[in-house]
Specification:
Length: 677
């Protein structure tokens, strides 16, 4: 009884196992039947079916078998390369996977080695690999990776029962896939327009002629199929083409430039890649990939010709030329620079500071480094090399924004430096003369101002150059046994030595006038202008030099101011309690313009507390050349004493002259202040 029960249990177990196995076999057959049917659908109806099919195959098998990833590895007899993959963990660059193994006669050892390496790469618990053969040779391995043992065991059981059938299906699919991919490639080449793709048989007759060939040579395909390809080659290059064909038979691939002709017999320079066609290890013909390089060759020839011209120019240049690479090593020196630095070809490859260590090499290197760091386009350095002087001009050689080297020009400036040296000597002499003239001019103006309990004076005197054209003098004189005061402000046109010489003439004329003023009761300020005008007109300068003058005679006893002017700006009289007032002589020309001109005088009554301002037009530069602004400044500060007004005016002048652009255009500034106490 017990035995019968055991038999029944055993039968039930066997029945269960049979059903289990049948279930897996049935599902496996359905699975691969589905794959194959989908492959046929893709092949017949979907463009680019190859990639679609491979991905469908990967995803279907991996999902069905609960694998974490699947990889198709191609085998070249020495190492594996990734062909395609699905479901790999993030961060793995499958395109760079190469698993090198030792080829072994025992397939099992190879498979174990592959599995071991893939476990490390894919961090998998188990690997299931299927070798795929073409004939007797393994060409692919289809690999599944698992992260848990249950899925792996399940797949092993299914593979155990239906392994051979699965492998046959996969191998057939891959063979069909390879054939189809090859046909797709041929179809693609047929439609390419930028390159000519031509297939020749073993006798060099054309069997295929694509769109690119039609465009390049001007023949439709039906006109060239079954004709000899040699007919398209220019006669001089036929022998060269035959040599390349013979070489291709041995090497399988040859590249060459061949001169050909189109339908109009126009010459074409082509670059041809010749590949041997092998079918079942038998030579059946040639693939020809043809590129029209006519324009490129013309361009190269022009570049070559231009390069020869440039080289000739550089070699025969009168300036020395050195080219440095980005490491500051000499890569070229022309003949001129060899004679300058007494160098030769042995300098090539040396650092510039080593090659010219005796000839300011360090200085040149420092300038080059400055050129790089500051990213400037030019740096220069004047050097004396042996007996001659050279201006070394350094330019960066750039490719886009990358610094690739430096070009140095050695320009002979010996003659210019000799002239410069002579000019420096002359200049030093002129400076010495100017300094002497400045001392002389400063001696013309009073070193100490007069004044007393009743009257004070103050001045601002700023020549724009070493010597200027302004002149002033303030002096106490005795007229009719009583104190009088003379104020004179003069402005000679221009600057420098010529202007200073006229200021000497003004002072000389003033000395004569002063003597006359002290002895002649009828002498007045206009007499000075007449005397000065006669002297300047007698110089025959034809108006190239003229002088503006304002001369004032103050009589404190009479509280009277007698004055005359010649083309000079107005003077101002003002006080704390009165508005500013201009005093002038209308229509009075500068000295040296009109011969024998009769200048006039005018007078004004003074009051205690009155202040007087006489100036030259240089002060107006501080007020934007606007006399009204200067007048407003005086009026605003009229309550101050003249020393305080002077200090405020000096501050305004300093603020303006600190601007270098203004100071270069500044004229002489002279301002004379008088105050009756």
């Amino acid at each position: 009884m017990i035995i019968n029960i055991l038999y029944i249990i055993l039968l039930l177990i066997l029945l269960f196992l049979s059903l289990f196995i049948f279930r897996f076999i049935y599902r496996y057959l359905k699975f691969f039947q589905k794959i194959f049917n989908n492959y046929l659908n893709l092949e017949n109806g979907v463009p680019g079916f190859s990639n679609n099919f491979i991905m469908y195959l990967h995803n279907s098998i991996r999902t069905y078998l609960h694998a974490s990833s699947s990889v198709l590895l191609s085998w070249n007899g020495k190492e594996f390369f990734t062909h395609s993959y699905s479901g790999l963990a993030a961060g793995i660059d499958v395109n760079n996977i190469k698993i090198k193994i030792i080829r072994n006669n025992e397939e099992k050892q190879i498979e174990d080695k592959v599995n071991s390496d893939l476990k490390i790469i894919f961090k998998a618990t188990d690997i299931l690999s299927i070798p795929l053969k073409q004939g007797k040779n393994i060409i692919f391995y289809y690999v599944l990776t698992f992260k848990d043992n249950i899925s792996f065991i399940n797949s092993k059981i299914q593979m155990y029962f239906y392994r051979k059938h699965i492998i046959n299906i996969l191998e057939n699919l891959l063979i069909n896939l390879s054939d189809k991919m090859r046909n797709d490639s041929l179809l693609l080449l047929e439609t390419i327009k930028d390159y000519a793709f031509v297939i020749l048989d073993i006798n060099l007759k054309i069997t295929s002629w694509n769109k690119g060939a039609e465009i390049m040579f001007g023949y439709p395909a039906d006109k060239k199929i079954n004709t000899h390809f040699i007919d398209l080659i220019i006669q001089d290059d036929v022998k060269n083409f035959h040599k390349k064909i013979l070489k291709c038979i041995n090497n399988e691939e040859v590249k060459s430039n061949i001169k050909m002709k189109d339908s109009n017999n126009t010459a074409i320079i082509t670059e041809i890649l010749i590949r041997k066609i092998l079918i079942n290890d038998k030579h059946r013909g040639y693939y020809l990939f043809i590129k029209d390089i006519t324009n490129e060759e013309v361009w190269k020839e022009n570049i070559k010709r231009q390069s020869m011209i440039n080289k000739s120019i550089v070699e025969n240049a009168r300036d020395g030329i050195i080219l440095l690479n980005f490491e500051n090593k000499i890569i070229y020196i022309n003949e001129k620079v060899k004679s300058i630095i007494e160098g030769d070809e042995s300098y090539l490859g040396l650092n510039i500071d080593q090659a010219m260590y005796r000839l300011h090499g360090k200085d040149i290197l420092n300038k080059i480094e400055e050129l790089k760091e500051k990213k400037i386009e030019l740096n220069t350095l004047n050097l004396k090399i042996f007996k001659d002087w050279y201006n070394v001009r350094m330019f960066p050689i750039k490719n886009m924004d990358y610094y690739e080297g430096t070009i140095l020009f050695f320009v002979n400036i010996t003659e210019m430096m000799n002239i410069t040296h002579k000019l420096e000597i002359v200049n030093r002499s002129l400076i010495e003369d100017l300094m002497s003239a400045k001392i002389l001019q400063m001696n013309l103006i009073p070193s100490v101002l007069p004044g007393g309990k009743s009257i004070v004076f103050d001045t601002i005197f700023l020549p724009c150059d070493e010597i200027g054209g302004d002149f002033y003098f303030i002096e106490e004189i005795v007229k009719n046994k009583k104190k009088n005061y003379i104020i004179i402000a003069a402005d000679v046109s221009g600057h420098g030595i010529g202007a200073s010489m006229l200021t000497v003439l003004v002072k000389d004329c003033y000395s004569d006038f002063k003597n006359k003023l002290e002895t002649d009761n009828k002498c007045c300020p206009s007499d000075f202008l007449k005397m000065l005008n006669i002297k300047i007109m007698n110089l025959n300068m034809e108006g190239s030099k003229f002088v503006t003058v304002f001369l004032i005679l103050i009589d404190l006893n009479k509280k009277e101011l007698l004055y005359s002017s010649a083309g000079h700006p107005d003077a101002y009289i003002f006080s704390e309690n009165t508005d500013i007032k201009s005093i002038r002589i209308n229509n009075s020309p500068p000295i040296g313009i009109i011969d024998n001109y009769v200048y006039k005088d005018d007078r004004i009554v003074l009051n205690n507390g009155d202040k007087l301002c006489v100036y030259t037009d240089g002060i107006l530069d501080i007020f934007s050349d606007d006399p009204q602004k200067f007048s407003d400044f005086i009026n605003k500060n009229k309550s101050l004493n003249i020393k305080e007004i002077k200090n405020k005016l000096n501050a305004k002048i300093s603020a303006k002259t600190n601007n270098s652009q203004f100071s270069s255009k500044m004229d002489d500034i002279t301002v004379l202040f008088t105050e009756l106490l």
